[in-house]
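Problem 3 from the worked examples.
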Amino acid sequence: MTDKNFFDSVFEVVKLIPESRVTSYGAIAQYLGTKSSSRMVGWAMNSSHTLAEKIPAHRVVNRNGLLTGKAHFGGERMKELLEKEGIAVKNDQIINFKTHFWDPNIELEI
């Protein structure tokens, strides 16, 4: 991944998150070998590229399953997209988060 910038690497991982699954900023950062850069992953998810490139940024939440990036979707759009995929959300938190969690560190070859 040395020939790509960090955001592009993040986007590649996010595109691999299966429908009806979610992951965390930290899990993506760890997969990319930059464990302490979860905030940078969040910035990548909040960039204008996620909409233009059809990146499923709604599938990336914080380590507790909270929809911390929902403000960048406008209103309840993030919650609506997750619920459309069968993921229940209450009070901006994913119900049964561990059941829906997809860990790129386990699911993808490093």
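Problem 4, a separate protein:
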Amino acid sequence: MNAVDTNILIYVNDPRNLVKQEIAASLVASLTDGFLLWQVACEYLAASRKLESLGYSRIQAYQYIRDLQQVWYAAVPTWSVIDCAENLMSRYSLSHWDSMLVAACLEVNIKTLYTEDFGYSNIDGIKIVNPFRLS
């Protein structure tokens, strides 16, 4: 199972960086076993407001999340994610929101998390991949 961080979904709909947009769109389209994490969906809806000046509307943002719900699994975290996140913050010096994201991934057995924001390549067995970094 795979998951993406909010930044990947934003790049899909942000025309300001065509290279990142193409990579993000290709990645999202290829993830047939993707998970849409609750936190990512909520963060996306909030962050996508920054795209309004580029013609991307709130209606489009909500529809994009609905479209992803049709093709990916959805994961709503349980209360145990908070305890796991606290532990991850201590061990990896992650921010609160990054630790919540990783904890949610652990809860639903995500094997790979795609993001450009982490300084780690593996956290507790989750492979962290920056799809924009040339290997």
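Solution to problem 4. The first helix runs from residue 6 to 12. Residues 2-75+110-129 form one domain.
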